[in-house]
Amino acid sequence: MNIKGIVTKPVIMTGKDKTVLDYNVYAEYVFDNIKNEKHIDDIDFGSYNVFHMAMKKNDLYIVSDDEIEEGFFKNILDNSFDEIFVADGEGIAIYCNEIFEKNYGVKREDLIGKHVNYVLENGYVDVLLFDKVLEEKRTITYKQKTRTGRVILNTSSPVVDDEGNVLFVVENCKDITENEILYNTLNYTKSQLEKEKNVNLRSDGLKNNFRNFQSKGITEIISKINRFVDKDVNILITGASGTGKTSLAKYIHNISNRSSKPFVNINCTTIPENLMESELFGYKKGAFTGALNSGKKGLVEQAEGGTLFLDEIGEIPLNLQSKLLELVQEKQYMPIGSTSKKIADIRIIVATNKNLSELVERGQFREDLYYRLNVVQLEMPKLVNRKDDIPKLVYHFIDYFNKKYDSKVNMGANLMEYFENYSWPGNIRELEHLIEYLVINSHDETIRIDDLPQNIITSHDSYNDSGEIVLNISENDNLDLKGILDLAEKNIVREYYKKHNSSYKLAEVLNISQSTANRLINKHCKSNR
């Protein structure tokens, strides 16, 4: 008996006095109590054939029996995590383990002795490449879907004799259902993100390309921008919320000689005051408790070579403004925990909806920082003063949200004049959100007048074709004198505020106090829809 045969059988080693010294795992598998046996004669070999091999110092007892080997390896295969299936060279199934039965949904007794095509013909799998393995005599790996809903990676390998005849085909089948679900989910998420990215790029394409707009206020801004776009001057963009200050900053970056470098946008209201310095300037390793071991690049460094846009600059804490002044004035800064300063090659654009000069007067904003930032000032007009641009924006947002929500919504007749006659206190942001609402709530892919919020309808109905302010009151409205006067006040204030969009101007034209004008604006022009 050679060594190759010995290693696949139970082997027990004893001393010359037959005391058990050692044994292999096969012996431990066959003889349950061998750990407790001290002498070879105490072991019950039963009907097994035992081969005794005498050596110089020790003896070997080798147990040989076909049932032992079959039972041992069958136990291993049945407890395999992967499915195992074996067919002979004629395609007759001769073995499958328990996990194969479970994942394929076929009973062993129904399969063994039948041709492998049984699982295909009876719908247990959607594809079977057994014949191809026989024909090409090579290992083939492919996916299968089983009746139980599992996705299986089947690796079928032929076992050939010396003459090249296929004796067996062994299939090692791995359940990859969870991997497949994860893969499909990731692919879907990736495609959705790519779709969202493309849609957003299309949206930015109009909002950030101000050459498409025709209103006087925007064309004047573009003319001004063209004179300094490639000069590294600091820019202050002012204007009410929602007027497109961020889009204007992106437009300046995109047409400048820094367009190939990063555009880093920071909204100063979203960063906690105690984290703002580390977010802006970064920090070195060990700069403070909780700091990353690797340190962290600040947003200033991330914008290197490009544009740093600080939105809502009026919210910068006073104690940080001195460090920001050094960045603006000297283009250098010091990360937290560092002992040396860094040079920043960046353009700085800031924006605010506050009156910075008033903040300076109240001691809430540094005067020297204000003048350093206010080298070039651009004031974004309100949407009510950009009526020529409203149709282009409306159609753009309809196209944008149609693509986002896979819809085909279009504008109904006479709808545009309702948009043009509304005051838009929330500016472009309000228009964008309204169009999104109208698109996703459209009943038959057409936006009609009845779909509009009541305040927009009322705003349109408050003046006639000659531009005169009218009330459109009927007896059915059941309004008393006070109600009629309130409606008249509302329409008058809204109409005049469209043209004179500040409490000071409104007070002057209506010959009322500024406090009264401010109260009327808050009551009639800034109330929720």
How does the major sheet shape up?
5 strands, antiparallel
In what order do the strands lie side by side in the largest sheet? 6-5-9-8-7
Structural class: alpha/beta
Number of strands: 18
Q: How many whole angstroms does the radius of gyration measure?
A: 41 Å
Spans of at least 5 consecutive residues whose pLDDT stays below 50 are 1-6
Helical coverage, percent range: 40-55%
**What is the beta-strand fraction?**
15-25%
Shape descriptor = elongated
Mean pLDDT: 83
Number of helices: 22
Structural commentary:
The chain has 529 residues and is an alpha/beta fold. Helices cover 41% and strands 17% of the residues. The protein is built from 22 helices and 18 strands. Helix 8 runs antiparallel to helix 16 (390-404) and helix 20 (481-499) packs across helix 22 (514-524). The protein is elongated, with a radius of gyration of 41 Å. Residues 1-6 have low confidence and may be disordered.
Write a compact overview of the structure shown.
The chain has 529 residues and is an alpha/beta fold. The protein contains 22 helices and 18 strands.
